[in-house]
Amino acid sequence: MATSVGDDSRPEATTASAWGKRAITIAAVLFLGWLAIDVAVNGPQARRVEVDLAKELEALAAPPGASLVHQSTSSKPRQARAGRSYRAALGQADLRDYYDQKLKERGWHTCSRRPPTNGGDDLVSFYYCNGAYTAILDYAIQKDRGWDYAVELSWGVTP
Question: How far apart are CA 86 and CA 12, in angstroms?
Fold first, then answer.
């Protein structure tokens, strides 16, 4: 009887192949189960935090003369965001002073600052913290983004 190359009709090869398929199926089922539990348990909390962040962002009035360009919110299990971008004639120092005061009034404190990188990033970012929440004030040095500055509040996101 002739056999073709790759034809392995030995019983142990068939058994090993079957066990491999079972292991992959079991791993896939466990992963999908974990994913479903994660969404069911952590998804509602993330949506509640998303609403809280949107309210907090709404309470941070933009400086006089600033106009809203875009706003968005999003969430997924263990993460939430709310952000707005604006056009404004204010410079970086004036915006920083304005938001330092407004955020401090609401219980936020300065965490850090990130200057632009040499890789072409034209943003200067200021970070604020309030418990588990982070706020980022991004100031665009180049004015070709369609906005001059942005404010983003987040939870569960590493900046």
Answer: 67
Query: What pLDDT, on the 0 to 100 scale, is given for residue 71?
Result: 97
Q: Which residues, listed in sequence order, are joined to residue 154 by a DSSP beta bridge?
A: 81, 134
**Between residues 18 and 132, which one has the greater pLDDT?**
132
Question: pLDDT at residue 150 above 60?
Answer: yes
Structure tokens given for 5: 């190359």
Residue 39 has pLDDT above 70, yes or no: no
Residue 135 has pLDDT above 90, yes or no: yes
Around 5, how many Cα atoms within 13 Å sit in the side-chain half-sphere? 0
Strands (E), 47-148: 67-76, 79-87, 109-114, 123-130, 133-140
* Residue 126, Cβ density class (10 Å: 0-12 exposed, 13-18 middle, ≥19 buried): buried
Distance of alpha carbon 23 from alpha carbon 29, whole angstroms: 10
